[in-house]
Amino acid sequence: MVRKDKKQKSPQPKKKSSPLMPKLKKFVRTCGAEYLKDPNITSIGIGYKLKDGIPSNELAIQFTVDSKAVPEDLARLDTKLIPESIEIDGVKIPTDVIQRKFTAEFHIVEETPSNERKTRQNPLMPGISVAHVKGSAGTIGCIVNDKDSGIPFILSNWHVLHTPKGEIGDLIVQPGPYDNNQVDLNKMGKLVRSHLGHAGDCAVATIEDRDIKAKILGLDITLSKLGEPEIGDKVMKSGRTTKVTHGIVSRVNVISKIPYGGTIGEQEVGGFEIQVDPDNEPENGEISMGGDSGSVWVFKNSNGNPTEVMAGLHFAGESSTNPTEFALACYPKSVFEKLNIALSSKAELEKIRKYGFSTDFLSKKISLPKLSATNKKNAYFENENEVIDYTHFSLALNKIRKFAFWVAWNIDGGSIRRLSRKGLKFELDSQIPDEYQVGNELYENNRLDRGHIARRADLVWGSLEEAKKANKDSFYYTNIAPQMDNYNQSRMNGIWGRLENAVFDDTEVENLKVSLFGGPVFHENDIEYRGIKLPHEFWKVIIFTENSKLKAKGFMLTQNLDQLEVLELDEFKVYQVALSEIEQRCGLSFSKTLKEADSLGEPSQTHESLSKRKAVESLQDIDWS
Questions:
Q1: 3-class secondary structure, 204
Q2: How far is residue 314's CA from residue 335's CA, in Å, rounded to a whole number?
Q3: Which residues pair with 416 in a beta bridge?
Q4: DSSP SS3 for 183
Q5: Is residue 321's pLDDT more than 60?
Q6: How far apart are CA 421 and CA 166, in angstroms?
Q7: Measuring CA to CA, how many Å separate 581 from each of 124, 573, 591, 609?
């Protein structure tokens, strides 16, 4: 039964992402801290405006406050009036003011009968008691690995493993001292990394002299992915105190003021908010209680069962003075980036990334394209290298335009596998900050398709394990560019999408192996749509060996993106061009070996508009010599 003093509100509806969401998120990130200087404001986030306590269809900047007050009482509370709306990039966004206060959940509650969550366990498992040697008790969220060394850690909160009085290297015990004060017998490891701030309340500790069980107690799942919660998502967690509870994401991109006591005092922590799921109410009405800190929230599937996708790291709950029950959790991607951790072991991480573009795939070494000095300034660097490797392909990412400068991939035509794309979803690459990628927000409710630069069918070759990984990797948004929905359905018979097949059909490709480079052409005057400049031209280079001779063929495609607004305009057109022209148009340079393999040589029409040239109207128009 729900406690009578805990009045639950209607659940948040699950709604489609609004094109306004990126702007609202940016506003909270950049301006939220200024609003939190007001002593009466406890958090700022994004949610659906409440009308008579029920979420509407209108997105709002939501403020929570210690006390609601009439205008004449604002001075007494040392607070200012929150405006009815805030203008963001020319759009007026309504505000919402809710009375609510949060507290970090390290205040231990009344003891309940002993259970496996509060006793010493070997193997260690997520969902059981843990704490700093001088702390109280929190929860092991999940088992993670150091991204560099692959060493396994436990993940929990800063205020569970570090505490206001702790420091790196301190002893961590399991169970926490509150559950068993024989700390010498319960040594588990040492604190190695922690963070408290906008990226979250999080920390990791080593595991010493204990075995490991990665399945979360009570949920019986092992985490395999990091997710991005949205308003209305259903989630569940397994904590030391309240065990398994269910919730619904009620606000996103929340920055809250949390009192941590001691010399730390009040801190601003980023995350999202969760309310009780009325279809799965906890017996005592509490979605979380003291001791649950550090537990992991996971997404639920349509059948109501837990998935292997992490939604967040629990760190705070509604203070006892509030009549409603809410919880706060950190975003997993922020936590994992800040702590330099991964769900995969080092061996698995190396396995995932070791199959990038092979420069020795053909009879002659083919070097990757090099970026111009200007492009290099705009590139995203991973470990001081602009080349990002996936299975059977690599790329360089333009962090300003948020699409790839180039993608390079290999095709082994002799070991291609027929794998289904069923169940695969387009995803942001969790190893790269979201701000440098374009996600699903660009492609909703319009004629834009998510177009693979390196075709999925080109990549699924090799061992079954490799092919499956390549199949999945091809759906990262870093390998996607916006293309009109008739991209491969024009009167040109989809020539652009058939170029790879054509080289196998029309030439004697040695060893059935082909290498390709491709990507968009970035122009300053590209059409801007939903805050993103859309490339309307693409390029591709096909490289192969025939009769012991290395050959390279360059192509350009012009895409009519005006069709976003106007129908029945010119269709796509494909042109065969010299590699040196692609270099000049794209700010790239190819190796001397590659350019010598191009039969077109130096272009005579570099500065001439593509539209004035003869397009490739059939595959027979292509010069493969």
A1: strand
A2: 11
A3: 461
A4: helix
A5: no
A6: 49
A7: 60, 17, 14, 12
Residue 72's alpha-carbon distances to 36, 63, 69, 232, 452, in angstroms, are 21, 19, 8, 36, 59
How many Cα atoms sit within 13 Å of 461 on the Cβ side? 17
Rounded CA-CA distance 615/574 in Å is 6
Range in 182-191, 292-301, 467-476, 595-604 the model is least confident about:
595-604
- Cα distance between residue 481 and residue 292, in whole Å: 42
Using CA atoms, how far apart are residues 355 and 466, in angstroms rounded to an integer? 8
> Which carries the bigger pLDDT value, residue 404 or residue 81?
404
Task: State which amino acid sits at residue 580.
Answer: S
Cα distance between residue 163 and residue 166, in whole Å: 5
Alpha carbon 328 to its chain centroid, in Å, reads 19
Weakest mean pLDDT among 109-113, 207-211, 405-409, 518-522: 109-113
Question: Residue 249 and residue 14: Cα distance in Å, rounded?
Answer: 9
What residue segments make up the domains of the chain, in order of their start?
Answer: 99-340, 348-418+426-621
Would you call 375 helix, strand, or coil by DSSP?
A: helix
Do residues 562 and 541 make contact, with C-beta atoms less than 8 angstroms apart? no
Three-state secondary structure of 129-178: EEEECCCCCEECCEEEEECCCCCEEEEECHHHHCCCCCCCCCEEECCCCC
pLDDT at residue 538 in the model: 93
What's the Cα-to-Cα distance from 23 to each of 18, 90, 435, 624, rounded to whole Å?
10, 11, 12, 48
Let me know if 414 is exposed, middle or buried by CB neighbors in 10 A (0-12, 13-18, 19+). Answer: exposed
Residues 6+ apart with CB under 8 A from 169: 190, 191, 192
DSSP 295: P
Q: Residue 447 — very low, low, confident or very high, per pLDDT cuts 50/70/90?
A: confident
Nearest partner of 445 among 387, 485, 491, judged by Cα: 485
Q: If you average pLDDT over residues 186-208, what whole number do you get?
A: 94
Sign of CA dihedral 188, 191, 194, 196: positive
Q: Of 396, 507, 370, whose CA–CA distance to 454 is shortest?
A: 396
pLDDT at position 568 = 35
Backbone angles phi, psi at 100, to 5 degrees: -165, 145
99-340: which CATH architecture?
Beta Barrel (2.40)
Q: In the structure encoding, which two tokens stand for residue 294, read together?
A: 């550090």
**For 470-521, what is each residue's pLDDT tens digit?**
999 999 999 999 886 655 444 444 678 888 888 988 889 999 999 999 999 9
Same fold, 99-340 and 348-418+426-621: no
Nearest to 24 by CA among 338, 270, 254: 254
What span, in angstroms and rounded, lies between the C-alpha atoms of 365 and 209? Answer: 49
Q: Measured between alpha carbons, how far is residue 546 from residues 474, 515, 580 in Å?
A: 28, 13, 22
Question: Do the beta carbons of residue 55 and residue 12 sit within 8 Å?
Answer: yes
The type of residue at 29 is R
The region, left, alpha or beta by phi > 0 then psi within -120 to 50, assigned to residue 244 is beta
Q: Any idea what the Cα angle at residue 229 is, between residues 225 and 230, rounded to 5°?
A: 145
- Name the CATH superfamily housing domain 348-418+426-621: Extracellular Endonuclease, subunit A (3.40.570.10)
Find the radius of gyration of the CA atoms of the chain: 28
Cβ burial 182-221 (10 Å sphere, 16+ → b, else e): ebeebebbbbbbbbbebbbbbbbbbbeebeeebbbbbbeb
Fill in the DSSP letter of residue 488.
T
Tokens for 102, please give them. Answer: 């949060």
Q: How far apart are CA 512 and CA 426, in angstroms?
A: 29
